[in-house]
What we know:
This protein has helices spanning about 5-10, 25-35, 50-60, 75-85, 100-110, 120-130, 150-160, 175-180, 190-195, 205-210, 235-245, 250-255, 260-265, 290-305; strands spanning about 15, 40, 65-70, 90-95, 110-115, 135, 145, 165-170, 185-190, 220, 230. With about 300 residues, the protein is an alpha/beta fold. It folds into two domains: about 5-200 and about 285-305, TIM Barrel (Alpha-Beta Barrel); about 215-275, no CATH class. The mean pLDDT is about 95. Bound molecules: ligand TUI.
Amino acid sequence: MKTRLTELLGIEYPIIQGGMAWVAEYHLASAVSEAGGLGLIGAASAPGDWVREQVRRAKELTKKPFGVNIMLMSPYADEVAKIMAEEEVPVVTTGAGSPEKYMQMWKEAGIRVIPVVASVALARRMERCGADAVVAEGMESGGHVGESTTMALVPQVVDAVEIPVVAAGGIGDGRGIAAALMLGAQGVQMGTRFIVAKESQVHNNYKKCILKARDIDTRVTGRATGHPVRAIRNQMTKAYLQKEQEGATFEELENLTLGGLRKAVVEGDVVNGSVMSGQIAGLVKEELSCRELIQKLVRETEEVLCLKL
Ligand code: TUI
């Protein structure tokens, strides 16, 4: 499955594992890279020391390329950005903002930079400032989401830029990967599917929640605060949406979600925590190792595209 993305990154398959906050740590990232995809460590809102340690652990477990996702709203973003250059991390992806101010430093360190974008305008800006590729992420994805769907966003970004485009949001199996390639993407990024991988260290309650979710079980909270976040519906999303409708203040709403993801991932509190997940949760029915999963995805994609002999 050679594409411009596999060539750019030196990986076997055009499959990136999303750099999900709290979920994407070095065990998962290194397993995905070892299996021929690109594994990412999610720096989320963690301090620099934690991220540096994660990077060093990943380097011990794989000699293949891996990356780090930097969540640009993090108070530690500046510090983590510098560590990327010091540790010569092969690939950096970014989310929830524009990484323009770090671009020169990363390019000088030889890092491949792949910002996640939710609009054509940001994709163009990222290309102009030197991005090597972009991830075009539709609102079917879990966590912080934009406005457009993957089906609408990806071909528009593909037409707008010359650099490779990676599709994300709503992709859960080989049919989704094949569809993304048909839209002109050079690869995919998948998050939710990897939460349930054997190597994923998330609490078993979180995995069970995704395994039993149906197509209609996610909700987007925070549209009113400007921080829309998709998660599996539970007591927290219900209370949040009710308060949001009643015109609650930003602080009241933030208090409901504060630390919610950690609560769900680490403590397994899937009732009051934030069980971030994409809309494809209903497609996820089994816990596989990263190698089994990636092999299955590649097989399914080839079958759909009739590439198999
Ligand atoms: O970043 C994500 N997804 C995330 S980050 C996250 S951590 C979090 N935890 C609790 C509350 C809120 C966040 C969970 N999920 N995806 C990448 C992404 N980036 N999606 C959309 C965007 C985006 C949105 C606006 C990127 C840039 C942007 O505007 C930047 C600009 O300057 O125009």
